[in-house]
Amino acid sequence: MNSVDIAFDQISDIVGKDNFIQNEETLSFYSTDVFVSSKEKPLAVVRPNNSYELIKIVQACIANNVSLIVRGGGASYTGGYLPINSNTIIIDSQNLKKIEINEEDMYVTVEPGVTWLELYEALSPLGLRTPFWGPFSGRVATIAGSMSFHALSHGTNNAVSADSLSSLQVIIGTGEVIETGSQGANENSSRFFRHYGPDIGGLFLGDSGALGVKTRITLKLRKKPEGFAAISFGFPDFKNLFLAMRDI
Questions:
Q1: Distance between CA 217 and CA 164 in Å, rounded?
Q2: Which fold does the domain 99-223 belong to in CATH?
Q3: Pair 30, 45: CB distance under 8 Å
């Protein structure tokens, strides 16, 4: 039995046969993003049911030298989750939906498959939100995917997704699981503080998942504003527009 077969047996035992998918139609679909189709197809698409299963899958792939890619909502148009060789497993995060809200310390921890819309709907009844509340594709875009691709947005006080991060749980290339931020420094500590000791959280932001697989993401919380208002201005010429923008 070769290393790929060993990995397949181990992963199938972890997630169950229904979540270990190899039919041609699914493999073709997962080889395509918004604009690009890959020349290569994955060996399988795997759907873990929780962060524990995700960790075990990644460790099995590393131990058996099988390439892996994690796919979020599939809204990418940069080819970031497309396979580039034939020895690849795609981990589909769509079942990883756990959300833990800490109102006292004002942070929320999510599994990588949670979308920005799902997080918004969970926080809204509590009058809370994250500083960055998602890209334009936030109905389907996952939080882990946005962190991996440095998602931007307009109209938020924190226009870069990374600015909302408190801590990460990440599986690195050795198969080791690490925690960043205050949780990483002390396992009995809260996850509310990012800049604890050397801030290594930034290493795994904007990395397209290449430096580690994110298993849990903790974001800061703030109170939702009590109201919203918009004002529209008209200007007689560019000079007055420029002066007004400067003053604002």
A1: 10
A2: 3.30.465
A3: yes
Q: pLDDT by residue (tens digit) across 43-97?
A: 999 999 999 999 999 999 999 999 999 998 887 777 777 888 888 999 999 999 9
Long-range CB pairs of 156-160 (<8 Å, 24+ gap) are 156/131, 156/132, 157/131, 158/131, 158/132, 159/132, 160/132
Q: Where are the domains of the chain?
A: 3-92, 99-223
CATH for 3-92, options being 3.40.50.1820, 3.90.45.10, 3.20.20.70, 3.30.43.10: 3.30.43.10
Any idea which residue has 């020349």 for tokens? 39
The per-residue pLDDT for range 99-139, each reduced to its tens digit, is 999 999 999 999 999 999 999 999 999 999 999 988 888 88
What is the full DSSP assignment across 29-45? HTTB-SS-B-SS--SEE
